[in-house]
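Write out the 3D structure for:
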Amino acid sequence: MKKGDFIEIEFVGRVKATGEIFDLTSEELAKKEGLYRPGYKYGPALVVVGSDMTIPGVMKQLEAMEVGEVREFDVQPKDGFGLRSPKLIRVLPISKFTENKINPVPGEYYEIDGMRAKIQSVSGGRVRVDFNNPLAGKVLTYRVKILRKIEQRDDKIKKVLEYYGIENDGFKLKEGKLTIKAKNMPNKLTENIVKEILTKWINDIKNVLFEKSEKTKTNRDSSKQKFK
């Protein structure tokens, strides 16, 4: 594969030391391993080769693979989720949690200041919190298969929108501007990610604009009229 290729992969990631699965694409395997989550969307993952859509250790392997190929390999922490840092372990006043109606429980994860963190201990009105990624410092084992390469421009756009959960009534590209008729407007973070992928990796696209689909509005309006 070369940089800029849009591909779909299936994979399973495990912690090498324990064999624990931390991520996977197969619904069947999730059920078999007792990891199935109702409502979670299983299936092939979209990756743009050369992007930051997966960790460096996996991306390096994808760049050396071909469609249909299967590889199993280890990823060291420096090419995975990084090394653990003592600087990311902080002690916070319990008032920071109670103000937000949170009862900090050791071993549980919470979102704090926009970051996911694990509570290590609670004592004397102080809470010891670990902001390190749960997989930081761990050697990982991946099994990856490249299912297919997406060739057509419109198919690439459709797959990006689908992957990020943006339902739409179509899109139009004119003079470098891609206008997407979104049924569900993405939040700002998702919007920025999608815009970056589309403008960086599809040459014809210079700008992306999301517009609320008029079809949704029309359907609501007609329903209101029907019940007047």
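Confidence is low (pLDDT under 50) at residues 217-228.
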